[in-house]
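Task: complex structure prediction.
Instruction: return structure tokens for all chains below.
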Amino acid sequence: MSEHHNHAHDDHGHGHHDAHAVHYTLKDYTIGFTLAVILTVIPFWLVMNNVLDPGTTRFVIMAFAGVQLVVHMIYFLHMNAKSEGGWNMMALLLTLILLGIVLSGSIWVMYHMNVNMMPGMGDAAAVTGHGAHDMP
Amino acid sequence: MSELNATMNGAPGAEAGSRYHVREHHPEHGTLLGFWIYLMSDCLIFASLFATYAVLGRNYAGGPSGAELFELPLVGLNTAFLLVSSITFGFAMIAAQAKNLKRAQLWLAVTGILGACFLTLEVYEFVHLIHEGAGPARSGFLTAFFSLVGTHGLHVLFGIVWLVTLVVQLAKHGITPENMRRMQCLSLFWHFLDVVWIFVFTFVYLMGTLP
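Output:
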């Protein structure tokens, strides 16, 4: 881009933004779709046919979901480190951090609330049929 | 990250005042960035719903559990609808990029129909559950389930409304830069819904079915 003008608004209309525009290709979508199908069918197959023991299955299908998230991000949402000058990635990272705090925080706090509940209260609730806690 | 280039490398003797002028690369109009930030905030809504489900997901209150209620073949079919609708939206984007109006509209229509199939199946599932006495009021687990899956379904519904709007706009104005921008936003939205669904079927349906 030309450095003769130092005003940011000179950039508009010069067409250099094409360098950052997404180019949609059949190849990207085909690769993404094939990977997504594989990554979806395997977890369903594992659970429906009880291939592994439940504990292992849980971790395996979580891993598959994580991989499929990345596949969708790259091939369908066309994410890369440079899109929108990197701000897309920054927003995504912030969201992932907040997501981690919300999820792990809720599970952690509520699990301990359940564990540390006064013994009598849990039983009383179970007898009356309200709030039977089946937490592991 | 935003390609800040202080113009220190300008020609010698350039205007003295320009030396400290920070040149920032502005994304074109910023609509896509703004829309992305909306999606990220939507992501947080789903994060809180998932957190609620993680906390309440096993509080059956003596009612039915996920293993008793969920029909995985049905969920698999629903997943297939949504996944195929993702690639048909991709075909619409490719057609729009090639300035092929008719084909873009056709693929958008196919995407919308697949989305409608997804919604129909989901509404059928909800009606079936409520009919069986497993409505959202039955237990903490079912409240969390209906809020999470229902919110996703509402998003798909609005996605379909937007799809129909876009097909009409395309018919009216053709593939203009404005319509192209709208298609890009809807593309992000639609694929985002598919991403959320990955976690719904993994954490809610598959894990709910595991003993």
